[in-house]
Amino acid sequence: MQAAAHKCSIMEDALLYVQELGNLFGQSLTCRTLFSDLTQHSIEGPTNVLKIKPLCPTRWTVRVKAVQKVMDNYEPILETQEQLSTSKSSGDMSARGLLAHFQRGTTVLGLQIALQILQLLECLNIAMQGRQKTISGLLAAVKVAKSAILKLRNDALFNSLLDSTNHMTAKYHLNAIEVLRLRRIPKRIDDGAAERFHAATVGDYYLPQYFELLDTVSVHLTQRFDQEGIQRYEKLEQVLLTGSGMDSIA
User: Which pLDDT band holds residue 30 (cuts at 50, 70, 90)?
Assistant: First the structure.
């Protein structure tokens, strides 16, 4: 997943901001107190104190809860950073930087995309664990995951993510997503042989990144689990479970 994240810069950046936000919460008591006060006032009745924690640095398939918590508490997170950025606490500089990042619509879109992929991979990770899991069951789970990835790879689903992002952008008065300007190639190195592609809409610009991310995840699953060694273990497993098929592993 880490290698695949490089194919979608807005998702990679958004997850980095969540990580930095978790670090800020861990380092700043003022930040935790402000956030706790804001969330307690917005919810009636007794509640548990919410905490924003850093992402696990190595286990990419257990990040859904952290990312979802950020999405569910986006408004109090913004308010916390706004208040902290105007204070003189040790975290005010970090809060100002994070506030600028979380005020961008691209950050919301990146987190929306991350949830789509990470939820699927987390389910696959759970399906692979357990003492009674089998190699054949593992490979079946991978096949289901790859099929689910293929279903995510369509324009309509991406447009729904974009619509949801635009709704949050308007609701929280964030900076709208814009198509990046095409840099002009210096005349000394531009031979004019081919005209460069320039996306006319936000969807045209980010859809290829989204598709490339999905394709990379699917390819990595194939490379990891479609190996001769795993296939041999599957055949051996069948021999042990059924008592037949010994010739297939000879």
Answer: confident
Q: Is 40 helix (H, G, I), strand (E, B) or coil?
A: helix
The amino acid sitting at 217 is: V
Single-letter code of the amino acid located at 151? K
Distance CA 223, CA 107 (A): 30
CA dihedral angle for residue 236, residue 237, residue 239, residue 242, rounded to 10 degrees: -170
Locate 83 and state its tokens.
Answer: 């208040």
Q: Among the residues of 29-174, which ranges form H helices?
A: 29-42, 64-72, 74-85, 92-102, 105-128, 135-152, 155-171
As a residue count, the chain comes to 250
Q: In this structure, how many other beta carbons lie within 10 angstroms of the beta carbon of residue 129?
A: 8
What is the identity of the amino acid at 124? L
Q: Using one digit for the tens of pLDDT, what is the confidence trace for 62-107?
A: 688 889 999 999 999 999 999 988 876 655 778 889 999 999 999 9
Q: What is the DSSP letter of 90?
A: T
**Residue 206 to residue 190: CA distance in whole angstroms:** 26
From residue 32, how far is each of 24, 50, 53, 90, 91 by CA, in Å? 9, 9, 11, 13, 11
Phi, psi of 95 (to 5 degrees): -65, -40
Q: Report d(CA 117, CA 127) in Å as an integer.
A: 16
- Whole-angstrom CA distances from 162 to 71, 75, 176 are 15, 19, 11
* Tokens linked to 114: 């991350």
CB atoms within 10 A of CB 94: 20
Q: What is the pTM of this model?
A: 0.83
Q: Are 214 and 149 in contact (CB under 8 A)?
A: yes
